[in-house]
Structures are given as C-alpha cells and as structure tokens.
Amino acid sequence: MSQAHEYAQQHHDRFVEQLQELVRIPSVSTLSQNKPDMAQAANWLAEDMKNIGFDRAEVMPTNGHPVVYGEWKGAGEEAPTVLVYGHYDVQPAEMADGWSHEPFDPHIEDGFLYGRGAMDNKGQLIAQLKAIESLIKTGGSPVNLKVIFEGEEETSSINLPVFVQEHIDMLSADVCVISDTGMREVDQPQMCYSLRGLTYMELHVTGPSHDLHSGSGHTIHNPAQALAEIIAKLHDEDGRITVPGFYDDVAELDAKERALMNEDAPTEEYVIKTTGSPTTWGEPNFTPAERMGARPTLEVNGMVSGFYGEGSKTVIPAKAMAKLSARLVANQKAQRAFEQIRDYIAEITPPSVRSELKLLSKGEPAYTAPDTPSMQAAVRAYEQGWGKAPTFNRGGGSIPIVADFQQMLNVPVVLLGFGVGDGVHGPNERFLLEAFKRGVDTAIYFYEEVGKGL
Amino acid sequence: MSQAHEYAQQHHDRFVEQLQELVRIPSVSTLSQNKPDMAQAANWLAEDMKNIGFDRAEVMPTNGHPVVYGEWKGAGEEAPTVLVYGHYDVQPAEMADGWSHEPFDPHIEDGFLYGRGAMDNKGQLIAQLKAIESLIKTGGSPVNLKVIFEGEEETSSINLPVFVQEHIDMLSADVCVISDTGMREVDQPQMCYSLRGLTYMELHVTGPSHDLHSGSGHTIHNPAQALAEIIAKLHDEDGRITVPGFYDDVAELDAKERALMNEDAPTEEYVIKTTGSPTTWGEPNFTPAERMGARPTLEVNGMVSGFYGEGSKTVIPAKAMAKLSARLVANQKAQRAFEQIRDYIAEITPPSVRSELKLLSKGEPAYTAPDTPSMQAAVRAYEQGWGKAPTFNRGGGSIPIVADFQQMLNVPVVLLGFGVGDGVHGPNERFLLEAFKRGVDTAIYFYEEVGKGL
After folding, report:
1. Contact residues, chain B, for A297 at CB < 8 Å
2. Using H for helix, E for strand and C for coil, what is the string for chain A?
3. How many residue contacts between A and B have a Cβ separation below 8 Å?
4. Does the predicted TM-score (pTM) go above 0.80?
5. Which of A25, A262, A315, B221 sits between 20 and 30 A of B414, alpha carbons compared?
6. Complex ipTM, two decimals?
C-alpha cells in the first residue's frame, strides 16, 4: 500500500465530513433563487483545492454558473496529464417530492450518506478530489492534473462548450476522467463506455385567451385535453416512438455488442423490483439494457395545466405545458432529433389549438471503445482499488460534455464511476460510503497506472 | 314608480359599496386556509339582514361552511312565500392566473365592477338582498320572504341537501328564486330554464414507487404519458365522448326546442370571438348552444405531474393526476355517469400502470318549463325592471341545488339572472353595474308580480 492509500485511510472520516459540508450547500443550477448557493459551492471547492496544494485554483466566470479550475503540474513535463471533470450543481429537491429527511441536511444511515447530490455528483467529485489530495500530500502525483468542476451539468452544460473552446490550451491533456456513473452492486464494478445524448424541450399548447367556465365546454378544444392527445400520439402501442425518421440515425447493435452489454445487465424482474412499476414497458425486441443504452427515448418529465389544488374548480384552462426530453444514441444528432419532434408535433396539432415546442438544451451521445489504453488502465485500477475487474455497459443517462471533450480536446474520456446507491434525480438520493472509500482508492490507482505510461 | 324603486335609486351608490365590501372578503370555499374568511362573509350577510329588518337572521352550521338564513313574514299568512337562494362562496383566484388587479381588491372601470365574485354570485346575491331591503324599508314586501345563502356552491353544495332535508318546514315556499345566471348583452335579458348536472372527479395514475432518472426511460411506462394516453381515449376525433353508454340517458331535442334555444344563441363566430380559441370544437351535428345546454361534456379541469418549474429536470414522474368533470343533462344521473366513466377508465388503463378515479362531488341536472306561472311572473318583471322581455335559453353551467330544491321542497325554481360581464371562474371577473342596478329593480318587480298571486 502506497503512502497515498494510507493517507486516504487515515483521513476517511474527514473526507466524509467535507462531502457533507458540500451537500449542505443547495447548489441547484436550474433555479435562479439558488444562484448565491452556486457561488458558495464554487468557492468552497476552489478553497479546498488551495488547501490541498494545487498550483492554481480559481473560480472562473462563464455566461452562466462559474467553472472551478485547478492545476497541479508537479509530475514534470515528461509525465502524462489527466483532466478531471465533475459537476458541483445538483437537481432540485423538496420534501414534497417524497424525501424522508431534508434533502440538503445530509445524514448517514445503514452505511449510506443521504442527501441531494450525495452521489450525483458531489460524492464522486469529492472522491476524486480526495484521491488527488492523498497523492499531493504524500510526495506528489505521478501525473500532472487539471481539474474542471462545472455548475451546469444538470441544465445540460449550456455554457461549458464555449468555455472549453476558449481554453483549449489550458485544458489540453492526454486523457480525461469523469466519475459520474455507477454500478448496481458494490461487489461488481461496471464501466460505462457509451452515454446517451439529450434533447430537452417544453411543449406549450394554448387555446382560449383566458381560462373559461367549464359550462362552455365542448364548444372549443380544451388545451389540456389537446396536450394529452398530442402526447398520446408520440408512441405507438409497443412503445416505439412515432416521430418520422427518429430511428433513421440509430446505430444498429451487432451480435457481439448485444452479448457484451447483456452479460451483466438488469433483467425485467430487476427493473420491476427496483422501480416498483407493475410491469416493464418499451420496444418488445430489445432487452431493458438495450432499451436504456442503445435505443433512444422520448419521455414526459412533467406536465401542468389549469387547477390541480385541493378540491374542485370547474375551469377550462387556457393553456397546458409539458416538459419533454429525448435520450439519444449514436449516431443521432441532438438538433436533428429536436427538429424531427418539432415538425411532427406541428403536424399532429389540430387546428383547434396552437402548439409550440421550445428547445431548452441539448447534448450529443458519446462512445469510447473498451480496448482504449486509458480504459485498460482503469480496468487495472478497479482490480486493485475496488478488488474486482469491471464489466462493461452502456449508460442510459447523459453527460453531454463527454462528447464535447472528445471532439474539442481530442482525448479519450474514461468514465471511472463509483456510484452505488439510488435516488439520483428523485427523492432520498443516497451514496454507499464503502463505495466512496473504494472510489478514492481506485482513483489513486488510476493516476498511478496512467503514470506508468499509456 | 313605487317607493321601493325610489329607495333603490337613492341608495344605489351605497349598495355598490356594500357589494365591494363583500368582494373584499376572500371567501374561497375549496381552500381550507380561507375558512375564517368564509365565517366572516357569513356574519357580514347575517348582520346586513338584521340591519334591513328581517324578523330572523342567523348563521346556521352545516358539516361544512355555514348557511346564512333570514326570514321576513310581514306580508301575512295569505300572501305567497318566496324562497331566495344565493351563494357567498367564490372560486379560487390569484394574480398568477392572469388578473390585472388583485382579485379581492375590487375596483370600478368602464362601468364594470372587477373582482372575484363580483358577478358569481356576490353581485347578484347583493342585488336580491338590496331589492328586499328596498321593499322592507318602504312599507314592506307584498310576499313573505325566506332567504338562504350557502357557502359551498363552488364545491358542489356537498352539505346543503342534508341541511334542506333537515329544514323542510322552515324552507317551505311557493316559489324559489335564484339569481345566478346571465345574458350576453345587457339589452337582451335571457332566462335560463335548464341547468346541467355535474360529476367532478380526480384521476390518479401511478407507476414506479418513486420518481426515476429519465436515463432508465422506456423500461417502464411513464405515468404522465399513460395519463395523457387515457385522457386522449375519452373523446373520438369528432369530440364525441367515447365512454360506453354515456349518451344513453340524454334526452333528445325536438325541433320546437331546438328552434327556441337557437333563436337568440351564440354563433360559432361569437364563441371564437369571446373565447379567443382558433376554432370551435365539439360534436358536429349540434350548434354551440345545443352543445352547451343540451349535450353532456367531459373536460380536463387541470393536470399535474413531475417537474414543471423553470428549467429542466430529467425525471420520470412516479405519478400523474388530472381533475376531470362531466356536465350532465336531463335525464342523466350523476352517480351513473361517474360509474360509466370509472369503468371505462379501468378498462382502458394498461397493465403497465395503475389508475384510480375518485368522485369529488356531484349534482343532478334541472329543468323548469317556460310556461310555469312563476316563470311568467319573471317575464313581466324583466319587462318592467329591465325594459325588455327575456328570451329563453338552456344554461351550460350547473347549480346543483336547483334539482334538489325542486325535488325536496316541491317548488318551481325561477332563475332570475342579472349577470352581464365575464371572467366567471377565470381571471378578471367583472359585473356591469348597470345590470346590477336593473337587477335590483327587476327583483323588486318580481316580488310585486308574485304578490299579485301565482
């Protein structure tokens, strides 16, 4: 065991306390009311980088929430450079969503840390930062380090691509590592080699110029009903998306990859057990893993219209709105997917109402081959730090910046995920502290493996 | 002009001030937070009845909001007795709904009084009360008067039928009059002789036990999407309700009644102009007046699911809810209509989600023939008080207690409506003060006409 691993072991409790400190800051990027909290979280991270001994640590402005950037170049010019990415913003969370405890007052129970961001991404980001601390505080890291933590991942990293474009030299590296993925069980690490893109939209349907008394119903088209009718036409009975051309660019799965991604994949029974849904649902010719990793989706994330409070109000709402998003896979393009959906909705909107589809954000799908040298360094890091070699899987989620890093910085992106827990984006988010601990160790091993050369 | 009419003219400004006073009390019956305001409004009315000189004036409890009851028996045992009904509760109203001014801070502009309840029903109720005041204060009324003002009309008068049943003797009368209907233009009064019933429901759709990250989409059925799919199946392409058997009990319109109700009815153009909808909508073989007055409806009053705030949240909601209500016509029964809708929704709910339809409230449709003597007394009252004989129409709305009064008290119910304005149940509700003035006069004439014998 190297000195860095000993250091990590000795300081584990303080690492967890620091993670709790960061979770307590409600850095919800999508709500303007939380802007001061976003700044506070960014400052907290820059301050910690300075305490760790980074050569450079600063909060850098963007057109949205700031980026926290840090550098340590003590490994020398001959050593490889690793770019570490994480995000300090989180999804909204309120008790009313079904939390058992205050989402921004973290607590530990049964070995889990509960709180919004405990896993996504504050827990994994702190694991990375504390791995770096363990190396720097015990003689230094075998690789040069560049760390970029952004504050807009949960709003699709709207400003980060511009920031990266403007700082290509500053961010240049040999490999990029991101810890923002996970595994089902702590005993079997999984490496995600594919992520989905995302197109996030708002669908507005309007009819009358003002809310009407429902006594005048059936003389005009109810916009809430019309919205429901439009949404109902987005999928066929089998769960296939009906938008014309939507599957045209979807890469076909070959037999070899189907075998690889289904080897250690959630079964239909596992999906029912973990979600609580009465049955599974979706395209019948694909397994759940394939539907999540290799097929696009189109989902309703939210919906609102008219009166939905306590009691009754006999109103015909003037308008109705739904939040829609599509997860995209290689080789779909986010803008094209949006346009296909927009055109189809325009086509199926009846003349009795008006509809408008607004694009809120988008991100491209990404893919890194499992035999890439830095991916293999990660495999060895898991073997030593986690105790077992990872299996490979395609992720259902999106980290839009992965595709951007690959293209703009021309580096392989390794998803070194430590996530064990649940509740990400929902209530009662939690992160297994044993996974946090193994994550710190695995990250240290990853830097050591990359230090041996790629 | 009788002394009563002179009195009404002299005191008009004070009558309007009193109406504003009552509008200022936010007596929203459906929200528990407004319970103290409900009590305040009831007390205000009982106090005014005492000042007017009623023999009896009291706030009487029910299982919900109280009833205000008043009596004046000065016309003697030989004179007819009129039961006057109104409601002091109002629909919810918030600036966010699109009001230009605070809904509970009434103001006068261009001859209209603006405010929640200005027309429905505080304006018309005060017109009745001030007609009675004008008679009592100038020598007395030619008819005995019983006045009942309830506080739960906007929540479907849940407790009033029990109250009426328990006070049959107290409420016995020769005719019941209700001022809670309206007309399109002040120059042409309209008498409503038919009202629709109502079945108000909540449809809950649930899927996963908790909100999910949308990265796992298309493995389970999204409850918001499933709710939309169920709602979309409630009507066919022509706007006809698809619930099996729903039209079985609907009374057919004969040619004579179709002619009567379409004589002075809103055209398709009028509907488009007043609602702002791009087109009309509904069963193609019926005019707007027929669709509103003689055909049932099934409407979405509100809908909510998942995330609908600012920005984006990539969540699959665990549940979705819609408020649904059906307007019913003779000879439909509210309970049977609910059961038909409930059974159909159970049938079309896919096994991939769970659904539940809850009945919140119900009321039966009602009908009074235009040639009833008390209806003809009303025609003469309009001729004198309003300046023109009314046309007859069927109402699209519901006053559930009308059917209850007819059945339990065995009296004809005359809908002596004074409503000229708009925004009822929506934003910027307003009542033309000229209609308020004519309403007071017309009500006085009605009592005088009834006093001559039915």
Report:
1. 214, 217-218
2. CCHHHHHHHHCHHHHHHHHHHHHCCCCECCCHHHHHHHHHHHHHHHHHHHHHCCCEEEEECCCCCCEEEEEECCCCCCCCEEEEEEECCECCCCHHHCCCCCCCCCEEECCEEECCCCCCCHHHHHHHHHHHHHHHCCCCCCCEEEEEEECCHHHCCCCHHHHHHHCHHHHCCCEEEECCCECCCCCCCEEEEEECEEEEEEEEEECCCCCEEHHHCCCCCCHHHHHHHHHHCCECCCCCECCCCCCCCCCCCCHHHHHHHHHCCCCHHHHHHHHCCCCCCCCCCCCHHHHHHCCCCCEEEEEEEECCCCCCCCEECCEEEEEEEEEECCCCCHHHHHHHHHHHHHHHCCCCCEEEEEEEEEECCEECCCCCHHHHHHHHHHHHHCCCCCEEEECCCCCCHHHHHHHHHCCCEEECCCECEECCCCCCCEEEHHHHHHHHHHHHHHHHHHHCCC
3. 370
4. no
5. A315
6. 0.76
